[in-house]
């Protein structure tokens, strides 16, 4: 079964199975289960699978689309009937000209649909699996499979078990749980199931996943703001390692590419053969690619967004970065007592003293005595509306309202990450934002900021000539932009 993530199993009933559903009838009944990780991006691939294999049954795991869109996708995929199951974690489609639905049995990690095969008039059970991430949680799945096991019909079980039956079915540096594999095999044996060899490769996940997102999904122990910040921290390390492995030292790469291009060009000039010409062209192309990567690096460093791609120039960006650093560096300052400082340590101590005093002044008056004079204009209905937690659409609107290429803050993640990986992070982000609005204490990593001093006048000489600007992490900005959007209706009123 191609396009299948996890295991596919068939009842091991020998002759009894042949009596209920002959082998040629199994071949005619084409079933597909795919873990799409977002049905939008996988739609062309799914359409090709359905058309190529003439599938009569299709289960999609993690569609990442609102459940009211299933009818539209059923039409695009060519299925006449459909069902949303497992809290929209799975979509099921079938062809009513071949399969007549009889009944449904659901559990937290699987749903089983009984059909009558209209070709043979035999009944069969198809179970779609969406297993939990830990051995302990999956034990509920093994128990449910034993409960769903039919006594007198063919049974197909497929989906994402989140565990493999053997090491041959696993790739990667981390090893699957030995205990989890043993319990999985015990369940297969107890249910009388057999593996069905896939028609394609063993590893047939068709979803395109951004680099590092498998690490994001593997750590689900902590939720909310703390969990989201920890996942970002882990992902940052993964991306840093990936960048070193894939790109390496981009500056050294340019030097190496220049040397290889020069050598290849010299060989071609000495002996202008077709082989040497091809090598020279390839080396020149690699040099261009290396230069583009270096240009991209300096462009991101410079934060210049107003130049067209054709105007990009590495030297310009490099000079811009150096110019910004030189311009923003404070080399001389007068403190609150009028004393001038040129030493970096003294300048730093003076800055800390000034802004600490500025933001920790004693109260000069108590405003509570005038609160009784302020009329109450907010109704109970208004109050309930403003206290309502933001939903996923409001948070998405806040994400898309921010400049995706703006500085990412201390954690390094900007709007481009949140937009590009939205399908993977949206539910974790929702929990984090809702925690913020119910008043949960903001963890340091979630609300960390960088304080930058922006000159208010030309040639500033005192601390009062600078305006402190807080560069927050993108998460904190999203919460800020979500709040006014959350009260649009009230504001308009």
TrEMBL record:
InterPro entries: Endo/exonu/phosph_ase_sf (IPR036691), Retrotransposon-Effector_Assoc (IPR052343)
The name this protein goes by in its record: Endonuclease/exonuclease/phosphatase domain-containing protein
Lineage: Eukaryota, Viridiplantae, Streptophyta, Embryophyta, Tracheophyta
């Amino acid at each position: 079964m191609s396009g299948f993530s996890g295991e596919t199993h068939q009842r091991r009933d020998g002759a009894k199975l042949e009596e209920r559903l002959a082998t040629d009838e199994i071949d005619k009944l084409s079933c597909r289960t795919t873990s799409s990780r977002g049905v939008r991006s996988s739609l062309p691939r799914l359409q090709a699978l359905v058309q190529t294999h003439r599938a009569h049954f299709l289960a999609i795991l993690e569609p990442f689309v609102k459940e009211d869109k299933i009818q539209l996708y059923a039409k695009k995929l060519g299925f006449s009937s459909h069902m949303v199951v497992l809290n929209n974690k799975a979509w099921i489609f079938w062809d009513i000209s071949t399969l007549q639905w009889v009944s449904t049995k659901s559990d937290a990690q699987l749903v089983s649909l009984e059909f009558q095969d209209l070709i043979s008039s035999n009944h069969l059970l198809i179970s779609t699996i969406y297993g939990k991430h830990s051995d302990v949680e999956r034990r509920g799945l093994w128990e449910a499979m034993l409960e769903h096991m039919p006594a007198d019909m063919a049974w197909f079980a497929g989906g994402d078990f989140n565990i493999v039956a053997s090491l041959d079915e696993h790739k990667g540096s981390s090893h699957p749980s030995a205990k989890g594999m043993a319990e999985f095999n015990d369940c297969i044996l107890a249910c009388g199931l057999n593996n069905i060899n896939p028609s394609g490769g063993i590893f047939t996940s068709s979803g395109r996943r951004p680099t590092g997102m498998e690490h994001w999904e593997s750590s689900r122990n902590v939720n909310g703001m703390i969990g989201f910040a920890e996942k970002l921290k882990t992902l940052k390390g993964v991306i840093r390692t990936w960048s070193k492995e894939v790109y390496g030292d981009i500056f050294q790469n340019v030097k190496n590419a220049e040397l290889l291009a020069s050598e290849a060009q010299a060989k071609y000039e000495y002996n202008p053969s077709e082989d040497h010409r091809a090598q020279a062209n390839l080396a020149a192309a690699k040099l261009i690619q290396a230069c583009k990567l270096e240009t991209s690096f300096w462009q991101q460093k410079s934060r210049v967004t107003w130049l067209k791609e054709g105007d990009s120039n590495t030297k310009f960006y490099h000079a811009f970065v150096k110019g910004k650093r030189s311009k923003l560096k404070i080399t001389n300052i007068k403190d609150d007592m009028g004393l001038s400082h040129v030493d970096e340590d003294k300048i730093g101590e003076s800055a800390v003293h000034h802004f600490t005093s500025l933001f920790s002044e004693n109260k000069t008056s108590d405003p509570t005595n005038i609160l009784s004079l302020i009329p109450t204009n907010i109704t109970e209905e208004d109050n309930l509306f403003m206290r309502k937690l933001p939903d996923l659409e409001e948070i998405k609107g806040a994400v898309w309202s921010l400049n995706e290429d703006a500085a990412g803050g201390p954690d390094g993640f900007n709007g481009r990450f949140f937009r590009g990986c939205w399908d993977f992070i949206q539910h974790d982000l929702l929990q984090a934002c809702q925690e913020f609005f119910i008043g949960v204490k903001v963890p340091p990593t979630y609300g960390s900021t960088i304080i930058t001093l922006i000159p208010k006048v030309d040639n500033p000489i005192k601390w009062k000539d600078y305006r402190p600007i807080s560069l927050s992490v993108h998460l904190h900005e999203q919460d800020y932009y979500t709040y006014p959007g959350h009260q649009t209706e009230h504001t308009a009123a």
